[in-house]
């Protein structure tokens, strides 16, 4: 692990842990940090030894959102370049969110402190969210004259419903950890000193089954709000055909048959 890394990587057994590492900036997401995040996610997508991913922040914050230095640079840039450069940057933001959303393993955000703007969106890009008591969630884009650009308009309504998502985004109000669990923004509340242990236990539980079946199930569930029931059934049929041929399924069935045979003796 490099102390200079903006994203620290650890692996404990089958669990990978990515730690946002700009504590002096409350882990604000710079372009360089996003590039490191993308590199790690692309590597994790190919690494069959990893069965689950945890993302957390170093220091007191999870992720304070976009980097102020980048905003300052945009304000000082030639107006003729701002539009295209902004569009180009957005492609990187959305690519990172899409990579995380579609990673074929369970992903867990372990939110240790403030998750604001892009930071809140990053947390919701994960399958599950564990919030320590000091954690907060804020979507204050509109106060900056911006729209939520890190996936919040996609993820938040799916977690809290359309009307609540509008209220949280329009007001930009801060949501404390306990309320976040009540609203469905987070899935579990824990004490600060047990955050990583709680996230690791969740990762172990969520990744204990067939890696093949988890990946295929996740790829369908992620799109289930947009698909008709017939499309979900069709996608499920294709996925089940793949599962029938997997080593995990065959081993599980054989173990069941062996137990039944022993019990019948």
Structure notes:
- It is a single chain.
- 52% of the residues lie in helices and 15% in strands.
- The mean pLDDT is 94.
- The protein is of the alpha/beta class.
- Helix 1 (31-46) links the parallel strand 2 (15-20) and strand 3.
- The strands form 2 sheets. The protein has a 6-stranded mixed β-sheet, with helices on both faces. Strands 5-7-8 form a 3-stranded mixed β-sheet.
Measured between the Cα atoms of the first and last residue, the distance is 54 Å
Order of helices and strands: EEHEHHEEHEEHHEHEHHHH
| Strand content bin | 5-15%
Radius of gyration: 20 Å
Question: Which helices and strands occur, and which strands form pairs?
Answer:
Layout: E1 7-12, E2 15-20, H1 31-46, E3 52-57, H2 68-76, H3 79-101, E4 107-111, E5 114-116, H4 118-124, E6 128-132, E7 136-138, H5 152-160, H6 162-171, E8 175-176, H7 177-183, E9 188-190, H8 195-206, H9 211-221, H10 229-244, H11 247-263
Parallel strand pairs: 2-3, 3-4, 4-6, 5-7, 6-9
Antiparallel strand pairs: 1-2, 7-8
Please outline what is shown here:
With 265 residues, this protein is α/β, with parallel strands linked by helices. Helices cover 52% and strands 15% of the residues.
């Amino acid at each position: 692990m490099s102390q200079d890394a903006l994203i620290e990587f650890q692996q404990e057994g089958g669990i990978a842990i990515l730690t946002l590492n700009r504590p002096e900036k409350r882990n604000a997401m710079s372009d360089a940090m996003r590039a490191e995040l993308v590199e790690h996610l692309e590597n994790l997508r190919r690494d069959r030894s990893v069965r689950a991913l945890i993302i957390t922040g170093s220091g007191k914050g999870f992720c304070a959102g976009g980097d102020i230095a980048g905003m300052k640079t945009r304000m000082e840039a030639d107006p003729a370049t701002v539009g295209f450069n902004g569009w180009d940057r957005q492609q990187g933001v959305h690519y990172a969110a899409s990579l995380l959303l579609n990673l074929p393993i369970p992903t867990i955000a372990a939110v240790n402190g403030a998750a604001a703007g892009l930071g809140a969106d990053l947390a919701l890009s994960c399958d599950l969210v564990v919030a320590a008591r000091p954690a907060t969630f804020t979507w204050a884009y509109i106060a900056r004259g911006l729209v939520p650009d890190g996936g919040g308009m996609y993820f938040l309504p799916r977690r809290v419903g359309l009307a609540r998502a509008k209220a949280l985004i329009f007001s930009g109000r801060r949501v404390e950890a306990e309320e976040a669990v009540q609203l469905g923004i987070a899935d579990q509340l824990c004490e600060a000193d047990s955050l990583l242990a709680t996230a690791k236990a969740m990762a172990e539980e969520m990744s204990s089954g067939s890696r093949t079946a988890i990946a295929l199930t996740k790829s369908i569930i992620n799109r289930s709000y947009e698909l008709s029931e017939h499309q979900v059934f069709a996608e499920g049929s294709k996925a089940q055909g793949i599962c029938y041929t997997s080593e995990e399924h065959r081993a599980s069935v054989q173990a069941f048959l062996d137990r039944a045979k022993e019990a019948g003796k």
